[in-house]
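Work Package 3 (structural annotation) set out to generate three-dimensional models for the target panel prioritized at the project kickoff. During this period the team completed the workflow that converts sequence records into discrete structure tokens, so that structures can be stored uniformly alongside our sequence database. As a representative example, we reproduce one entry of 323 residues exactly as it appears in the project archive.
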Amino acid sequence: MSSTTFLWVLFWAVFVVVCSVDYFVASHRKTKMDVKSALRWTGIWIAVALSFSGAIYLLHPNGQEIFLEYISGYLTEYSLSVDNLFVFILIFSLMGVGEVAQPKLIKLGIYLSIALRIVFILFGIALIQRFHWLIYVFGAMLVWTAWKMVAADEDEQVHPEKNLLYRAAARLLPMHAEDQSTKRLFTNFNGRRCITPLFLVFLVIGSTDVLFAVDSIPAIMGISQDPFVVLTSNVFAVLGLNSLFFAIRGIMGLFKFLKHGVSLILFFIGVKMIAGIYHPVEEWFKERTYVSLLVILVVLTVSVILSVWHDRMLRRNENKTTP
């Protein structure tokens, strides 16, 4: 067995174990997840992803280069996921989903999005390999997305009822409302198999995350077109969303400027992809894969530090104005 094949086997083995453990914990949790517990689980999943990067460095034939691309891709996808989770918080609020049912819904939505993302990734890589000029189109998409993220109204509303899958399921399938504490997506009512309102939320969460992939998949392809790097970094980033959701919900003030940082990263990757039309620029970045990782790390670090500083200044001003 070659080292690359072994890494693929290792990836899928870790994927199955992580999914099994995460789903078991999410399904059997009796109480809501607090911030401390969410941060602990978030740390575990990040450690798993980074440990896999260590295996890449030691076992892959191009260990150092693939390692840097994997870390860059993972950090990019993970930071993009934070913006996704703010939308999930809003969806749960608008659709009246109780806190007990939220962990299982997010986890199932993640599974759906992983399956669809794999298809999207393989399709996107095949297109780029056949039509290389699409890389410049993806670059332009990222530049536009970066501008859209900064220019978008922070109070912009989400309308789950306009989701295509939501509307189709609500119209075509029999539905019966029941207590959300059961956390069931299906139920039997009057001898019929019916969906519950939680099933509709599941569809909205999963399909919404796929829509975000329209931005995130081109971003990772701007870092690497290696199917191994693109798929593994993307899947590991998405797997950590469940615990990250509850961590973010409890400490949202610390992410004030993260969206601006993510938009700057997308802008950098988009410009790099477009500039690749000039061959020396493309070769320069290929020979210095660490540059992308360095830019991503610096931007994320600065955005988090600014967010923490801004949150502390607000608290200090509030304390001064409180009589």
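The first strand starts at residue 186 and ends at 189.
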